[in-house]
Design a protein that fits this description.
- The chain is built from 14 helices and 12 strands.
- By secondary structure, the protein is of the alpha/beta class.
- The protein has one domain.
- Helix 1 packs parallel to helix 13, helix 10 crosses helix 14 and helix 13 crosses helix 14.
- The relative contact order is 0.16.
């Protein structure tokens, strides 16, 4: 019996080691693809024709749609920053999602809002009716819509329905965009208006950076280790993961904090799913499914240059809720669209991207936690040799640290966002520290979110308390959260959550 137990532990260890080697090798392939893309984009930066795009009458107009919930401290500066983006023609459609503070009052005072009669097209349905529509008397293209509280996705559907331009950019109300971010993200639509249906940009943590008048004037590395490690996560997720998958035409995620879409395609698929915890992830998967099933040629792009800045959690309790929610949204989306798995009709999405998310995103925390427990027990009882334990640590953590450092190097060579040597050293240190407790904690939190979904438990949003941007008004409000990988939505009281996602009919995979 003991020999059988030893053999089983050794087999499981080699299985987990092989899994992590495969996982990190996939990351290395994605990083290599990104490494061929980002430097080329950096070299072409001066020749991209943004000035021509900014003045051309042929540049397609954009509706910036955002949902706000209790954003009183920063909503005016956020809207001013959106209106001030360099773009030839764009409007801002802000949906006040039943805010309980002075969000609307601040907007009304700052922009001279007056009510208007506006016929809603009803091309996209929503759970809650529109209470009133307001426009600004200050000669700025701002529309503010008031609704009962119904969640971020449902509010965005209202904004998309009322958007008047052919391109829709969805932005979190508490996010900050670089001045040329919208122009840069619109480039693929200008180059190929018939086939490009969606495009996403980079999200970066703004904690402790210098911000003035809604603009990040000096990017800095956060002072706390918790947000500092998240800088590393965001670098890997965006510069390595999404850039690489976009090169393979297999991009499944566009962050809800900053994404640009063709409005007609959004209407075709019915807008955002109001009953999904990962509404932005689910939307992109549904777009792929809809267009593949219609056998229509299309492209979903990722541009690593435009940047959207957002504040990330600096407390473990808030981060735990966020990661549980992300993994639950990941599981529910993969379950809902499980018919795409390993189906050739869905091309790269069905045969590569979808299996990757099942094997290396959904199952990763389960295998990581079980692998650590097995190694610890086996080593403690003298079953696992020190050499096998070292091999596990190298495959699981050493390889990952190397990839994080390579992603940092790619960011520095291609984009050069952080200009101080101390900032680069701090990020490099965070890439190492991440594996000394943080990674294990997030794996455990993700498992908890998965288990809650399997039990069909009620998700708890809590409140996203923010400490504020350096040099600006502090933030301490319930806010729509941002995601590095599967961005599921807003931080809200549990009583205001949408119903659980209905399971799609059909066999389980």
């Amino acid at each position: 019996m003991r020999d059988a137990a030893v053999a089983l532990i050794h087999f499981s260890q080699y299985l987990v080691i092989g899994y992590f080697l495969a996982l990190n090798t996939v990351y290395l392939v994605l990083l290599t693809l990104a490494g061929r893309t980002i430097p080329r984009l950096a070299r072409r930066r001066r020749l991209t024709g943004l000035d021509d795009l900014a003045t051309s009458p042929l540049t397609p107009p954009v509706s910036i749609v955002t949902a706000a919930y209790n954003e009183e401290p920063t909503i005016v500066e956020s809207v001013r920053a959106m209106l001030a983006l360099r773009y030839p023609r764009h409007e801002v459609v802000l949906v006040d999602d039943g805010s309980r503070d002075g969000t609307f009052d601040r907007l009304a005072e700052a922009f001279g809002l007056v009510p208007v009669e506006r016929v809603r097209p009803q091309e996209i349905t929503s759970r809650e009716p529109v209470l009133a529509v307001y426009v600004s008397t200050h000669s700025v293209p701002l529309t503010v819509v008031r609704t009962h509280n119904s969640g971020k996705a449902d509010s965005l559907n209202v904004g998309i329905d009322l958007a008047s331009h052919p391109l829709v950019c969805m932005v979190d109300a508490d996010s900050l965009l670089d001045e040329d971010a919208l122009l840069t993200l619109a480039q693929p639509f200008v180059a190929d208006p018939l086939h490009v249906v969606a495009a996403g940009g980079v999200i970066r943590p703004v904690n402790d950076s210098a911000v003035r008048h809604g603009e990040v004037v000096e990017p800095r590395i956060p002072k706390g280790w918790l947000p500092r490690i998240q800088v590393v996560e965001y670098l890997r997720a965006f510069l390595m993961g999404r850039t690489g998958w976009a090169r393979l035409h297999g991009l499944l995620i566009i962050s809800g904090a900053f994404g640009l879409y063709r409005r007609d395609v959004l209407v075709e698929v019915g807008g955002m799913s109001a009953d999904s915890l990962g509404e932005d992830f689910e939307l992109v998967v549904r777009l792929h499914r809809h267009l593949c099933e219609g056998r229509r040629p299309y492209r979903v792009e990722f541009i690593p240059e435009p940047v959207c800045w957002t504040e990330v959690p600096d407390r473990a309790s808030v981060l735990a809720r966020q990661r549980r929610r992300w993994h639950r949204g990941l599981y529910e989306t993969l379950l809902r669209h499980r018919r795409m798995l390993l189906r050739p009709r869905y091309g790269v999405i069905g045969m590569a991207a979808y299996p990757y998310f099942v094997l290396f995103e959904l199952l990763a925390p389960l295998l990581e936690v079980s692998g650590l427990i097995t190694v610890a027990l086996g080593f403690g009882f003298g079953i696992v040799s020190p050499s096998l334990a070292v091999l596990f640590l190298l495959a699981a953590f050493g390889y990952a640290i190397l990839l994080s450092l390579l992603a940092l190097l790619l960011d520095e060579l291609g984009l050069h966002r952080y200009r101080r040597l101390g900032d680069l050293a701090a990020v490099a240190a965070a890439a190492v520290v991440e594996n000394l407790g943080y990674r294990q904690l997030t794996a455990w939190w993700r498992l908890q979110g998965w288990w809650a979904s399997l039990r069909n438990g009620t998700p708890v949003w809590g409140e996203m308390t923010r400490s504020g941007f350096a040099g600006t008004t502090p933030l301490d409000h319930g806010s729509h959260a941002t995601v590095p990988e599967t961005t599921p939505g807003a931080d809200r009281p549990a009583a205001e959550l949408p119903a659980a996602a209905p399971e799609e009919r059909g066999p389980r995979h």
